[in-house]
Amino acid sequence: MKFQPDRSSAQTISGYGPGWIGVDADRITHSVIIGSAGLRQAWAPARFEDLGPEHFAELATLEAELVIFGSGSRNRFPPPAWLAPLMARRMGLEAMDTAAACRTYNILASEGRNVVAALILER
Questions:
Q1: Mind listing the pLDDT tens digit for each residue in 61-108?
Q2: Beta pairing partners, 92
Q3: I want to staple 35 with a disulfide (CB 3.0 to 4.6 A). Which of 25, 75, 86, 116 is the partner?
Q4: What pLDDT was estimated at residue 10?
Q5: 2 lies in some domain
Q6: Are 56 and 86 in contact (CB under 8 A)?
Q7: Is residue 8 part of a domain?
Q8: Do 114 and 62 touch, CB atoms closer than 8 A?
Q9: Contact of 98 with 71, CB cutoff 8 Å
Q10: Would you say the C-alpha torsion 21, 26, 28, 34 has a positive or negative sign?
Q11: Which structural domain range is residue 58 located in?
């Protein structure tokens, strides 16, 4: 799907498909963390099954009010105990499939929210 974003100073997802997302003019084919303030870094889990509590502890170190978690091709939820580091920092987490996470991230980023998307891109 191709997006036609409204004008925004936030980093946006310009498109997505199976195994890839477009961020601004770049095509990304590995799991990634992106932020509305410009953060863009590789994220280790290649599949939902690769996730562990350390991945959510990593997200808790980011300066964001909300984390949008894209769990891959279908909606899956991490165990609640893994979210303790986020809760301790009063950071929200919303879990959804990666396509929905891309759309939700763009909406929140365009509103000026300090949001991070942690996206699993399955190959």
A1: 998 999 999 999 999 999 999 999 999 999 999 999 999 999 999 999
A2: 66
A3: 116
A4: 86
A5: no
A6: yes
A7: no
A8: no
A9: yes
A10: negative
A11: 13-119
Two tokens at 44? 């280790």
Q: Residue 4 is encoded by which pair of tokens?
A: 């036609």
Tokens, residue 92: 């929200």
**pTM of this prediction?**
0.91
Number of structural domains the chain divides into: 1
User: What is the band of 48 on the pLDDT scale with cuts at 50, 70, 90?
Assistant: very high
* pLDDT averaged over every residue in the chain: 93
Amino acid identity, residue 76?
A: R
Quick one: pLDDT at residue 1? 59
Strand 115-119 with 66-70, pairing: parallel
State the CATH number of the domain containing residue 51.
3.40.1230.10
